[in-house]
Amino acid sequence: MQQPYIVPPCHEQVEILFEDDFLLLINKPSGLLSVPGRLPQNKDCMITRIQQDYPTATVAHRLDLDTSGLMMVPLCRDVHADLTRQFQRKEINKTYTAVLWGDLTEDGSIDLPIACDWERRPRQKICYDNGKQSLTHYEILQRHGDRTRVLLKPVTGRSHQLRIHSREIGHPILGCDLYAHEEALNAAPRLMLHATTLEFTHPLSGERFNWHCPPSF
């Protein structure tokens, strides 16, 4: 098990893309935690920053520290509960943009079960004995030499699913410090993974939202 990690300060700001009395849509920068870490030094995070101006804000879902992109932030208990139910019923659709190592030849799917790698936490592992079913579809957007930009479409939401699935097909995400080989890790200044689209039903208005937030990379 790894020793607790002190997160370097993140100087980028959380960008608010949409706001009403019940809900925020934000763009989380890479390098910022979604929620506070265990160590006192890791208290800076998306939700503590948001709560400075929106004290009732809560966390409906999370993005990894190094993943940037779209997040929903409920501003009241009823909205939080409704979004949780939408997640449980798989009524919320998310896609991610990623840059992978290597040249993918065609679109495809990755269906591999994932379990916690307890001896090397926070890493996950592919495990056929007691892993949870995990499915990711991917679509090629652009090829450039030995790099491929893809749109990742997770059907399930396992921890580190997109990172480990990409690694398992031989195309790790550039800049991934947990699953990429050294050359792929050093090929980018950050994890090249961004939550790009988010489709859900607004809990109060009933309007179907489909937001798009392009990556900076």
From TrEMBL:
Belongs to the pseudouridine synthase RluA family. The keyword tRNA processing applies. GO terms for molecular function: tRNA pseudouridine(32) synthase activity. This is Dual-specificity RNA pseudouridine synthase RluA. Residues 23-166 form the Pseudouridine synthase RsuA/RluA-like domain. It comes from the Bacteria. PANTHER family: DUAL-SPECIFICITY RNA PSEUDOURIDINE SYNTHASE RLUA, MITOCHONDRIAL RNA PSEUDOURIDINE SYNTHASE. Keywords: Isomerase, tRNA processing.
